[in-house]
Design a protein that fits this description.
- The chain is of the alpha+beta class.
- Helices cover about 25% and strands about 30% of the residues.
């Protein structure tokens, strides 16, 4: 890891490197099937509303996204399918808190890319701050 323009150093596994690895895991959530797997959709998920919104992308073009308001029974999912629940939790919403009626909002664009997630039970949320149709290429730490 490196802070600002400082020198590269090994991370102890509990600091910035761990947080970055955790964040990268959540940014890998690409589409609704990854975010809401079949087991979860089969009896533990209810759509409570949907609305189309327009946002401006960084290339100054407008993009249409759809906001979905969901009610998720994470308690039932965890009790009924503990292995699948843990895998889903580790990849999507990082919390041990479960709820029989947790409100979750997701935003998906017209290309089926997940743009944002907001979990009201845990207070955990993420979104793609700079929305673009260009794929992100991380910097190479061996250069510079």
């Amino acid at each position: 890891v490196r802070y600002g323009a400082g020198s590269w150093a090994l991370d102890d596994g509990n600091g910035l490197g761990a947080r970055v690895r955790n964040t990268i895991t959540f940014l890998a959530v690409r589409d609704a099937d990854h975010l809401l797997p079949v087991r979860l959709r089969d009896g533990f998920l209810e759509l409570s509303g949907a609305e189309r919104d327009t946002i401006e992308a960084i290339d100054d073009s407008d993009r249409t996204i759809t906001r979905y308001d969901l009610v998720i029974d994470t308690k039932g999912f965890a009790d009924g399918y503990p292995v699948q629940y843990r895998a889903w939790r580790d990849a999507v919403l990082p919390s041990d808190e479960t709820s029989s009626a947790g409100a979750v909002t997701i935003w998906i664009d017209d290309h089926e890319v997940v743009v944002g997630v907001d979990d009201s039970v845990t207070g955990w949320a993420w979104d793609r701050v700079r929305y673009s149709t260009t794929e992100f290429v991380p910097p190479d730490p061996t250069v510079g």
